[in-house]
Amino acid sequence: MTTQTASPLKLDTEGLSLDSVSLWQITRRRLFRRKSSLLGMIILAILIVIALTAQWIAPYDPILSMLDANPPQDIGKRSSPCIHALGCAVDQPQHIMGTDGNIRDEFSRMVYGARLSLLIGISTVTFAIIIGTVLGALGGYFGGWIDNIIMRVMDVLLAFPSLLLAIAIVTVIGPGLINALIAIGIVSIPAYARVVRGSVLSIREMDFVSASRALGGNTYDILFRRILPNALTPLIVQGTLGIASAILDAAALSFLGLGAQPPTPEWGSMLGAERNQVFTAPHLVFYPGLAIMLTVLAFNLLGDGLRDALDPRLAHMS
Amino acid sequence: MKKNISVLLSLIVLASLMLAACGTPATEAPVATEAPATEAPATEAPATEAPAAYEGMMVEAPDCEYGGQFKSIEAVDELTVKMTLCVPDPAFPSKIAFTSFAIQPSEYLESTGGNGDLLEKPIGTGPYMIESWERGNQLVLTKNPNYWGENIGAETLVFRWGTESAQRLLELQSGTVDGIDNVGPDDFATVEGDSNLALFNRPALNVMYIAFNNNPQVEGFDNTTNPLANEMVRQAIAMGIDRNRIVDNFYPAGSEVASHFTPCSIPNGCVGDEWYAFDAAAAKALLTEAGYPDGFETVLNYRDVVRGYLPDPNVVAQDIQAQLKENLNITLNIEVMESGAFLAASDAGQLQGLHLLGWGADYPDQTNFLGYHFGDGASKQFGDHWPDITEALAQGAQLADDADREPFYTTANNAIRTHVPMIPVAHGGSALAFKASVEGAFASPLGNEEFSVMSNGTDTFVWMQNAEPISLYCADETDGESLRACEQITQSLLSYETGGTAVEPALAESYEVNDDLTEWVFKLRPGVVFHDGSTLDANDVVTSLSVQWDAGNPLHTGNTGAFSYWSGLFGTFLNAPPE
Fold this sequence. Notes:
The complex is a heterodimer of chains A (318) and B (579).
Chain A: H1 23-33, H2 35-52, H3 54-57, H4 106-142, H5 144-159, H6 162-173, H7 177-203, H8 207-214, H9 219-230, H10 232-255, H11 267-273, H12 283-309, H13 312-315
Helix pairs in contact in A: 1-12, 2-4, 2-12, 4-5, 4-7, 4-10, 4-12, 5-7, 6-7, 7-9, 7-10, 8-9, 10-11, 10-12, 11-12
Chain B: H1 2-23, E1 58-60, E2 70-77, E3 80-85, H2 92-96, H3 106-112, H4 117-120, E4 128-134, E5 138-143, E6 156-161, H5 165-174, E7 179-180, H6 188-192, E8 197-202, E9 206-212, H7 231-240, H8 243-250, E10 256-257, H9 280-289, E11 297-303, H10 313-328, E12 331-337, H11 339-347, E13 354-360, H12 366-374, H13 387-397, H14 402-419, E14 422-427, E15 430-435, E16 460-465, H15 480-489, E17 494-496, E18 503-505, E19 508-513, E20 519-524, H16 538-549, H17 564-570
Parallel strand pairs in B: 6-16, 7-16, 11-12, 11-13
Antiparallel strand pairs in B: 1-2, 2-3, 3-20, 4-5, 5-6, 7-15, 8-15, 9-13, 9-14, 10-14, 17-18, 19-20
Helix pairs in contact in B: 7-9, 12-13, 12-17, 13-14
C-alpha cells in the first residue's frame, strides 16, 4: 500500500501560491492586495479617465475667456466656485472651481491640465528610459572604456541637483513645454542608465547567458533579447517612481515660467500665475496644488507597491 | 656713466609724459572746451590778501548743430552755475529737478571712472547715505548728520524688495516692514479693512502701452520682413484690441482707458483725436488689406514686475494674447524677461514683436511723456523716429504758454495716432500701504516718496518695494525702484514738492532765466556738504551734468552707458558716436 501525499504548496511570504502562475500574475495579485498601491492605482485610473475624456468633461475651452464665451458671461476675474446644486444662485453662471485671473473656467483648465501632466510624466520617462537603457546596457555589457566613458558622463549629470540642471538646460535652449520635457528627460537619464547597467552586470554572468554565447548567439541577441528582458523589473519600478518626479519637476519649471507657456493649462503654471492670490482667491492655488500632490502620490504609491511586488526575494520565499 | 645718463634721460622723458598727461583736459574732443570761466582780476592785489581765484569749469558745444538742447554748462563762480540752451525750454526747471540729474562730487566721479563704486556707493547731499547694500537682500541707509534740510525720519532706512504683492502685504501685516509699494489690486479692500494699516492711493499719472518695433528687419524674424513695420498692421492691431475690457476687468479702481499717450491731467495731454475705438471687423479688414488675412505669429515681451501702470502683467499679457488670437488670428508667444535685460533691450530697439511697458510721470509736462518717448532724443524702443512727430514736439517744447503749445501737441498726438508706434492702454490707479502708526506717510504722484518726512517712532524704518534697484547711479537708470532709492541719497539743483509736482529749490536756492528761456543761472545753496565731507560747489554741478551730456567724456560710462533720461529730455549727446 502506498500512501500518496500531496506535495506542499509553495507560498510566498504573503501566502500567495507560487505554483503554476507567472511572475506577472503574482505581481498583480500582490499589487491588488496592498491597500496603498490599490489607492494609487485608483487615483491614477481616475486621472487617466479624466485625461482621456477631457473634451467631454470640461464645460468650456480651457483657454477661452468668459468674456469671449458665446454669449459672454457677466462674471469677474477670480470668482469663487459656483455650484448650483450647492445653493449658488441659478442666475450666476456655474463654475464649479471658479474662474482664474483671466476669467477662464478653472475646472476646465484643471481637467485639461491632467492630460498634460500625465503626458509630461510618461513622455519624459519614456525618453529617459530608452536612452538610459541603451547607455546602461552598453556600458554594463561591454565594460572597459565604453563603460567608463558612459558612466562618468552619467556621474557628471548626477552630480547636479536634477531640478537645477533642468533649469540650466531650459535657460540655454529657451523656455517652453517641449524644451522643459527635453530638459527633464535629460536629467532623468542617469538614474535609468545606472539601474540597467547594474542589472546587466549581474545577468551577463549567468549561465543562460553563457549558454547563449556558447551556442553562437550574436551580441545584439544576447544583450537585447536575453539580458535586457531579465533586467526590466527594477526599471519598471524606477520608471513608475520617475514619472512622479518628472511631473513634479515639470510643474516646478512651469511655476518658474520656464515650462508650459501661457495660455497652456498646466498645473504648475496655473499655480504660479495665481501665487499672489493665496489669500484673496485661495481656491486658485488649492486646486492645482492638490492635483499635483494627488498625481505624484498616486505614482509613488504605485511605484512602492511595484517595488515590493516585483522583489525576487519576496517572490521565491516559501 | 653711460648707463646713468640713459637712466636720467628716461626719467626726464617719463616725467614729461606724466606732466603732459596730467595737463590734458578731461574732455579731449575738439568741440568741447573746458576753461576757467572767471579770468584773473584785472587789478592786481597783494597775493597774501586776495582769495585764490576760483577755477570754474566750462563745457561748451561749438554750436547747436549737433542736435542737442544744451549749448554750455559753466561754473561762473563757486556758487553760481550758468546753463545755456540752444532752444528755449519752459520745462527746464522741471527737467533739471529730476533724480537723474543729481549732483555728486566731481573728485568722486573722476575717481570711480564713471562706474565701479559709483553704481553702488553714490555720494550725495541727501538726507540718507549708504551704509551697506547686500545684493539680493537689502539696502541699508543711515541718516546724514550733515544734511542741510530737515530729516525727521528714522536713523536707519532699510530698503527691501519682493516681487509678489501677497508677500509684501503679508510682511506689512506681520509688522516686519513699515510701508509697501504697489498693493495688489485685489488687496485694496483688505488694507482698507485693517485698522492697523493705511492705504494711500497714487494718482494715475502714468500710461501703460503696447509697443511695436517698426524696424523692417528685426532679429528673430528669420530675414523675413517684420509685419509690424507695416503701418496698416499696427493700425489694425490698435483697432483689434478692446482696451475697455482690459481696464474694466484687470485694473483697480481709479484707473482709466487711455484716450491719448499722456494723461489728461497734464496740460495738452489729451489734445488731438482720441485713440482708435475697438472694432474687430474693421481691424480684420485692415489686416487683410495689409496682406495678412490669416494673421501671423510674433512675440509679446514683458517683465513680470508690478507697476502702477501695470498692476497684473501676466493677466494683462494673456488677455492681449487672447484678444489678438480671437480678433485677428495673430499668435503671440509670451516671453517674460528679467527687468534690467528687458529695459536695456527695449531701449536698444532689440525687442521683436510687441512688448508691454509703461511710464510714470517724472514731472507733469508733455516733454516728459511725448518728448521723452517720441522726440528727437528718444531711444530706439519703437524703431525709427517719425519726423512729423519729432518736429512738432521740438516746436511745442520751446513754448512757455500752454495755449501756444496746443497746436503742436495736437499735431504730435494725431501723428502718433496715425503711425501707431504703440497703443496707449491705460492710466493705472495704484496704491501704497503703510502701518497706520507711520506719521507723514503719503503717496507721491511722481512715485518719489521721501522717507525723511515719515516717522514710525523707532530707529529703523523698513520700506518694501517691488524690486531691487538696478544700480544707484541714477543718471543711467530709468526704473522706479532705482530712482526711489537714489532720491533718498542724492539731490538735484531743484526738487519736487513733497507729495506734489511743483518745483522748489534744492541744491540751488534760486535761479534766474533770461526772457527767451535759454540762459539759466542757478545760485547754489552755500555750505552744503556731501556725504564724504566735501563741500558742494559749481564745478561739481558742471562735472555731474557734463559726464551725461558729453559722450566723449571718459566718465560717460555709467551702468549701461545709455543715459536715457539725458537724451530723452535734452536730445542728442555732445560728441555722440556716429550711428
